[in-house]
Design a protein that fits this description.
Blueprint: H1 12-25, H2 29-39, H3 45-56, H4 59-97, H5 116-130, E1 134-135, E2 141-143, H6 144-147, H7 159-163, E3 166-167, E4 173-175, H8 180-189, E5 194-203, E6 214-224, H9 229-244, E7 250-257, E8 260-269, E9 286-295, H10 297-302, E10 311-318, H11 319-327, H12 340-343
Helix pairs in contact: 1-2, 1-4, 2-4, 3-4, 5-9, 5-11
């Protein structure tokens, strides 16, 4: 039968000596804790050696062996705590020894900058406010009724395919494809006259240098008695000259939109070449920027407006597009990358 080791001769003695030397030599708290974990604690080398000695000892010696082992572990804990306090004292001494040059200038904070889209949106809002348009907003998650049906686009209408819509699963909810639903909500909430612009974020399945799946759009609506297509062109011309400069002009081309009739695409004289022809305008002298037209009576029917008494016009264009033209930004993705080199140009 094997003889139990004498308590005073347990092989943990050498481990304790080694551990104390390494604890004393640890120069940082991290190194100190690594040494402590290697020798002390429940999984340390000393605990394993003590447990092995207890397992090998006869019953009448197990308690005695365990007491010697506990004393060894307490010794390690004491050495660890002492060295930890010593490292803390050394750190405080170094902090107190530091000198501060109070004559050095303070560190200034870099000022923040408004995003170019924010600049463009605020300018657009100011310009239309001069014409009496008020601001209207609505939810970005819309119903099919407000986004399509009330705008004369029933479920089988082909214009829905052009929108490339993000639908929410198993519901008639979607991410709005334009801010026209805000016009519907406004007309449902008030009677004519109505004169609003509706800026906001919209979503479509686009992703290329000039289109983004999420972008910013502003739409305008004016409904009253005796509103004409000439009024629409006058409003667009005022905006173009106020935003890009007095030399800018507007061209309207026949087009189709399901919620306006007649409808038109509106172009601006090229802001880069002043109509002379360049790469940006493809040598035409014109840049396409948005759509417009007279509100279709079918839309008035959905909001219970008398189309025999009231007429109105609506228009819409991308705020991102306007920012790109005004600030000469070639790729729409630059507006969303958060590059400070771009943002710092717009204090």
């Amino acid at each position: 039968m094997p003889q139990a080791p004498e308590p005073e001769k347990l092989d943990v003695v050498a481990l304790v000596d080694t551990a104390e030397r390494e604890l004393a030599a640890a120069a940082t708290e991290q190194a100190l804790r690594e040494v402590h974990a290697r020798y002390g604690g429940r999984e340390g080398a000393i605990k394993r050696a003590v447990q092995a000695a207890i397992n090998a000892a006869p019953k009448d010696r197990k308690r005695e062996v365990g007491q010697v082992g506990n004393a060894a572990l307490q010794r390690i804990e004491g050495a660890f705590e002492a060295r930890l306090r010593s490292l803390g004292d050394e750190a405080r001494t170094r902090d107190l020894a530091r000198t501060v040059d109070v004559t050095l200038p303070g560190r200034s904070h870099r000022p923040g900058h408004l995003h170019p889209i924010t600049h463009a949106r605020r300018a657009i809002e100011r310009i239309f406010a001069q014409l009496g348009f008020t601001l209207a907003t609505g939810p970005q998650v819309e119903t099919d009724f407000h986004n399509f049906e009330a705008l004369a686009m029933p479920p089988d209408h082909p214009a829905r395919d052009m929108q490339d819509t993000f639908y929410l699963a198993n519901s008639d909810l979607l991410l709005r494809t334009h801010t026209s639903p805000v016009q519907i909500r406004t007309m449902l909430a008030q009677r004519p006259p109505v004169r609003v612009i509706c800026p906001g974020t919209v979503y479509r399945r686009d992703d290329d240098p000039t289109h983004s799946p999420m972008f910013h759009q502003v739409e305008g609506l004016l409904v009253d008695e005796q509103v004409t297509f000439a009024d629409l062109k006058g409003v667009l011309l005022h905006f173009a000259r106020a935003f890009f400069g007095p030399a800018t002009t507007v061209r309207l081309r026949p087009s189709f939109f399901p919620f306006t009739e007649p409808s038109a695409e509106f172009d601006l004289s090229c802001v880069f070449c002043a109509g002379a022809g360049c790469r940006t305008c493809k040598n035409t002298g014109w840049i396409e920027v948005g759509g417009a037209g007279m509100v279709d009576p079918e839309v008035f029917r959905h909001v219970d407006y008398d189309s025999e008494r009231y007429t109105g016009f609506a228009f819409g264009f991308g705020i991102d597009r306007m920012a790109m033209l005004k600030y000469r930004i070639s790729d729409i993705r630059l507006l969303y990358e958060g590059d400070h080199r771009l943002l710092e140009q717009f204090p």
